[in-house]
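ok trying this again, last paste got cut off
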Amino acid sequence: MDDRTRLGPAQRERDLHRLGTQVFDVVVVGGGVTGAGAALDAASRGLSVALVEARDWAAGTSSRSSKLVHGGLRYLEQLDLPLVREALVERGLQLRTIAPHLVRPVPFLLPLTAPVWQRAYVGAGVLLYDVLSSTFGTARGVPRHRHLSRRAAVADFPSLHPDRLCGAIRFYDAQVDDARHTLALARTAAAYGCAAVSSARVVDLLRSGSAVTGVRVHCLETGAALDVRSRSVIAATGVWSDDIGRMLGGRTSLRVRASKGVHLVVGRDRIEGSTGLILRTETSVLFVIPWGLHWIIGTTDTDWNLDRAHPAASSADIDYLFEHVNRVLADPLDRSDIEGVYAGLRPLLAGESDATSRLSREHAVVMPVPGLVLVAGGKYTTYRVMAKDAVDEAVHGLDQRVAECVTEDVPLAGAVGYRALWNARARIAARTGLHVARIEHLLNRYGALSEEVLDLIAEDASLGEPLGAADDYLRAEVVY
């Protein structure tokens, strides 16, 4: 892979120098999935781009998601067909072209409790989901749904309590390694010439009259202050969007409300099942998601008004998740089963509803003053559309002809060659002396860039050993 995709100390020093000396077409603020996506979008159009992030790539919401790329089955129930269509199209692009190494199909069971009306009602919805997926050309590689009897459902998921269901529907969506995916976006943007700098906090906007002409950045490693000049600024700061409004001297028309989503992590051996689960709650849905040697159980949907950098689970959050998942398990979970807990904040577009589950999952793009574009809302699945819309808005103010978005055809770092390496995984295992399961793990996290990790192990065999406290990861991955 091109060395320009390596995001490390030497690259950071070079790009930090560029920030202080170059005038960019676009500066993107925020190194989450939307910001990194916008940087790639702009850079792949031939624009000069800088991407700055206050902490680390994907340090906020983008590493604390449910790790799903999905069409949103529950949005179909709300008859939000445009959102479902958009999400299914994006799911297909990720699976086929953009990130096949990081996004893959995953089966779910949807347990049924009423044998006639619920099977007909839910079955019709899942059928429509499959039809929409096929209609929009995204179904390749994603199996269609199946109706299961109670016995077949319990065979698929033995930990289900047989008396708590009368059958199930098995359907497929997709899951993503969200942190690796966001990092791959930033690396790919760098390959197209983007100056990408983390630990660089934006503390103010540069102004010329009413127009924004750049950002003032505080380097958290050196303490230096830099004025980064640009012809346009895109702020993709998620739940920190209101901070940009305060830099303008007041609130903007884009209002964001932080909704906390809590996930529990339990050991894979604690629940026996070959699929995930999707469970209905009073206001939303709950997922039980297979993730390596673990299960992820989530999520909650409540307001959060405290420290946005460190959202935390409450005892009530954990009780809520246990209450709903234990309704269907033969052997209920308790706190001793918890291996980890994480919480993230969804940047929802604020509305009149008091319930965050009813706020918009769609996104908004606004230009409150010339030279500044704000983008917020949306879902992880539709980050590419959000990025495209933000860049489209930003380039309106540039006095040049700018190419159209091409990111639907741009594979992320590690995607090209992934399938060929996957087919050769047994040969790679024999060559390296690693178990084929280890090679599969590396390919599903790094794709074709796995060779860079394997090169480290070739230089130091001890790096091929698993981490003591997380033995599904190798020591080489920490070094890498």
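PB: full thing came through this time. The two ends are 14 Å apart (CA to CA).
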